[in-house]
């Protein structure tokens, strides 16, 4: 972080000592800074108070915040993220394309010297950096044209993730206050991400590196700055140098799903004992590492073992479909075949967010507690569905497939009939 004596090289040599002190003093004061209010003007007033309490200058509290305005489309996009509305196959095929592979391999050649240096210094293999780059902006083609200030303010004023985006907005104010970014630069994604690699303000603030040594970090125009910052970021959040992200695997016929809980790590040797093999039918390696079984489309789709580096990828983007795409594209960039979807896998039936919300409500009503229904197939939903499947002799893959929807409908209907018969 910029406040550490071990921080990366200052990204603007003209910063005064006073400004550096401001940056370091603001960071711990920005926690719990949610400002949500359905009235945007009131929300801006709340933001001014937060910024004043955090010690920002009148330039931020009076000028910058005054110029902020909401973007209605941002809320719509937040509710329709592809991670939650597409099947795994749809998501993967849109992001790991022949174009991504072809151009990515050219980038590996173009920046070979840089990648040699980054691998030596940060320990992150080059194919992962290029894979992130391809997925985030298609190698700089789509960096986003929305106002980052307005996008972050819009999301901070919305209740769904107000605390997270308020913090990001305040981190952006710190970047502006200390002249690490200029307001005219601040164009990016609807979620407030910036530049070639789509860094959120918090990541920029903590991990930015002046890779080309020109006295500033410009993640919009400098590919070197963006890639170097990405390598530093992944290194600092725990990338394990000599490990891979995971692998696609083959489940044996009649696999014992009851012996594996999802979103839980086991020794790789445990999966060997359960008969899991590589996709070429060879045995899993005798290697001391923890692994997690993940079935993005249930038992009918591809299966994966995920290693600790997978969680590092998810720190970048908290979506397993995204993280799998990073891993698969990284593999293909260095010659791997990638995922080949079978006819059975292609036939996996997608579900809507509303259908998932209804299923979550029904599972809650049946005491398979998973929290507030949100329409997202996350860890709590996988656990609840798996337990329901085990109770009703279904294949316990934790996936909301057709059998789950039909069975729970029948169970709920039977319960309602029993209540009527009992006079309740």
Tell me what you see in this structure.
The chain has 424 residues and is α+β, with helices and mostly antiparallel strands. It has three domains: 17-79 and 143-207, Bacterial muramidase (Helicase, Ruva Protein, domain 3); 246-346, no CATH class; 353-421, Muramoyl-pentapeptide Carboxypeptidase, domain 1 (Orthogonal Bundle). Helices cover 50% and strands 6% of the residues. The chain has 20 helices and eight strands. The chain has a five-stranded antiparallel β-sheet. Strands 1-2 form a two-stranded antiparallel ribbon. The longest helix is centred in the C-terminal third of the chain and has 20 residues, at 402-421. The relative contact order is 0.10.
What is this structure, in a nutshell?
The chain has 424 residues and is of the alpha+beta class. 50% of the residues lie in helices and 6% in strands. It folds into 3 domains: 17-79 and 143-207, Bacterial muramidase (Helicase, Ruva Protein, domain 3); 246-346, no CATH class; 353-421, Muramoyl-pentapeptide Carboxypeptidase, domain 1, CATH 1.10.101.
- Gross morphology is globular
Structural class: alpha+beta
In angstroms, what separates the terminal alpha carbons?
A: 61 Å
Strand content: 5-15%
Q: What is the CATH class of the largest domain?
A: Mainly Alpha
CATH topology of the largest domain: Helicase, Ruva Protein, domain 3
| CATH-defined superfamily of the largest domain | Bacterial muramidase
Number of separate helices? 20
Mean pLDDT: 89
Which consecutive residue ranges, at least 5 long each, have pLDDT under 50? Answer: 1-31
């Amino acid at each position: 972080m910029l406040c550490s004596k071990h921080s990366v090289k200052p990204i603007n040599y003209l910063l005064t000592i006073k400004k550096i002190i401001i940056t370091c003093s603001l960071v711990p004061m920005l926690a719990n800074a949610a400002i949500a209010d359905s009235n945007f003007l009131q929300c801006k007033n709340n933001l001014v108070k937060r910024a004043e309490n955090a010690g920002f200058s009148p330039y931020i509290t009076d000028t910058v915040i005054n110029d902020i305005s909401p973007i209605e489309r941002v809320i719509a996009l937040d509710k329709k993220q592809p991670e939650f509305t597409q099947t795994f196959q749809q998501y993967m095929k849109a992001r790991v394309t022949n174009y991504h592979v072809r151009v990515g391999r050219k980038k590996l050649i173009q920046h070979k010297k840089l990648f040699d240096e980054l691998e030596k210094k940060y320990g992150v293999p080059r194919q992962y950096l290029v894979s992130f780059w391809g997925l985030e902006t298609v190698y700089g083609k789509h960096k986003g044209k929305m106002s980052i200030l307005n996008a972050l303010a819009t999301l901070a004023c919305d209740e769904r993730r107000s605390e997270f985006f308020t913090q990001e907005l305040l981190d952006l104010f710190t970047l502006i206050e200390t002249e690490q970014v200029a307001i005219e630069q601040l164009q990016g994604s609807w979620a407030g991400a910036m530049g070639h690699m789509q860094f959120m303000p918090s990541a920029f603030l903590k991990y930015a590196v002046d890779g080309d040594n020109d006295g500033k970090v410009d993640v919009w125009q400098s590919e070197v700055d963006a890639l170097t910052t990405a390598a530093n970021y992944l290194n600092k959040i725990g990338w394990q140098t000599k490990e891979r992200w995971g692998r696609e695997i083959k489940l044996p016929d009649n696999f014992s799903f009851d012996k594996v809980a999802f979103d839980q790590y086991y020794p790789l040797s445990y999966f060997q004992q359960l008969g899991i093999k590589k996709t070429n039918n060879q045995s899993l390696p005798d290697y001391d590492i923890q692994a997690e079984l993940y079935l993005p489309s249930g038992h009918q789709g591809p299966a994966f073992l995920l290693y600790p580096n997978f969680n590092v990828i998810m720190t970048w983007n908290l979506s397993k479909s995204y993280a799998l795409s990073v891993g698969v594209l990284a593999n293909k960039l260095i010659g791997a075949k990638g995922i080949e979807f079978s006819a059975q896998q292609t036939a996996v039936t997608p579900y809507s967010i509303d259908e998932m919300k209804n299923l979550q409500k029904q599972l809650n009503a049946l005491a398979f507690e998973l929290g507030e229904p949100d329409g997202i197939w996350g860890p709590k939903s996988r656990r609840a569905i798996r337990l329901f499947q085990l109770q009703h002799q279904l294949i316990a893959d934790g996936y909301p497939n057709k059998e789950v929807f039909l069975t729970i409908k029948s169970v709920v209907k039977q319960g309602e009939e029993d209540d009527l018969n009992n006079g309740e």
